[in-house]
Amino acid sequence: MTDQHTQAQAEWFDRVAAAETIIPLVSKLYRENNIVTSIHGRRLINRSAIEVIKAHRAARRHHGEEVEIELTTRILEELSKMDVATASVDLGALAHLYKEQGEGDLAAFLAEQLKEVKPADETGQGADVVLYGFGRIGRLLARILIEQAATGPGLRLRAIVVRKNGEDDIEKRASLLRRDSIHGPFNGTIVVDKENNTILANGTLIQVIYSSDPTTVDYTEYGINDAIVVDNTGRWRDEEGLSQHLKAKGVKRVLLTAPGKGDIRNVVFGINSKDITDEDVILSAASCTTNGITPVLRALDAKFGVEHGHVETVHSFTNDQNLIDNFHKGARRGRAATLNMVLTETGAAKAVSKALPEFAGKLTGNAIRVPTPDVSMAVLNLELSKEVTRDEVNDYLREVSLRSNLRQQIDYVESPDIVSTDFVGHERCGIVDGLATIANGNKLVLYVWYDNEYGYSKQVVRVIEQLGGVHPSVVPHRKDVLEI
């Protein structure tokens, strides 16, 4: 082995050793202070040393240089000395800002950045969550809630409610939570107690309640009070149907994981979530596509103005389609989902205006279901209020993904070989593919990827956090898109 190879290997192992020192600091802050740490949006909790290194290196595509592990280690050590709790702290953004300001006293810098984060004894009690239905979205919500469970105030997954399908129902439910063909195995341990109808997942005890009538469930029997019921069934989408949950003992609010009908408010987190009031007891988290495109449209409209446009969604097939040709109440959806591209309707374009009223009448839309199980794409064909260049649009959206208050919703990528499977498990609900952007005068075509299962589920959890009053403070402060 040459000296050069030996040196490269030694440098690599030094980096691994440095990354390993970060892992217990990240874990301790999360476990004891409910502080979620990330690097430019890439969470560090429960990550290996290699994943920690990759998160630090990923900053190169944003700032031209990677985040130094030594600096993030120092930041973590200082954070562990501070009396703060329940916060989302971006170590990459803090490191960049610290160096931008000329470095100096790190403790004083962090104290200023975290001055609005509450001490541990002022962060509230948390909120009970019930998942009504346990299908694709329900199980992903369970995974996220279990992963995010902390000893401090936060969301507590207390129960799932399903209709019983045989004597081995609970074992099958647990098995579907444990293994997923798309998102992989559950990260942890799962123990089933058939006698007491409970599932113990990584220390989270989940009561399995069997019922087909929401009004008859008494959640207080299980010590559940003021719960947020998340309806994943799609069975009821209007106020009359969803209000049945409020008749059950122990329920405070209801959130639908599908577009709501009638006067139900459709919420896209980061867009109109701040408009939620205490009087809003029944809400909808809109659809995966609405969540995927609305933040990007908001950013574009703020900077360039959107006159009108068309949204074409290339969407993975879903469980409401047939595997092989058979009767279906919807047009074309009866044809084999795994063999055909299926042209169908989507209400996502019109639904944007429920979160952004200024888009009323501006958008049309259609959808093509394609033979892939997850990850979809929205093609935005827009006419803007001003002429733009491709680089101008891309540079702006890159900055929005890094520094704006829509950073949790929008990501930006430039990769010549990237394809849909690369976005499975992506936490942001819309990822702009910069290399595909087309600009011609005031005409713009933008391609936005989104994991229609996981990315959407993350948005739902953010809404639940706000309803429960446990959404973490964000550090450092993020700019409004109008300031980018």
UniProtKB/TrEMBL annotation:
InterPro entries for this protein: GlycerAld/Erythrose_P_DH, GlycerAld_3-P_DH_AS, GlycerAld_3-P_DH_cat, GlycerAld_3-P_DH_NAD(P)-bd, NAD(P)-bd_dom_sf
EC category: oxidoreductase
A Pfam cross-reference name: Gp_dh_N
GO MF assignments: glyceraldehyde-3-phosphate dehydrogenase (NAD+) (phosphorylating) activity; NAD binding
E.C. numbers: 1.2.1.12
Domain Glyceraldehyde 3-phosphate dehydrogenase NAD(P) binding residues, every copy: 127-288
SUPFAM superfamilies from the UniProt entry: Glyceraldehyde-3-phosphate dehydrogenase-like, C-terminal domain, NAD(P)-binding Rossmann-fold domains
Domain of life: Bacteria
Chain segments annotated as coiled-coil in the UniProt record: none
UniProtKB keywords: Oxidoreductase
Family: Belongs to the glyceraldehyde-3-phosphate dehydrogenase family.
Name this protein carries in UniProt: Glyceraldehyde-3-phosphate dehydrogenase
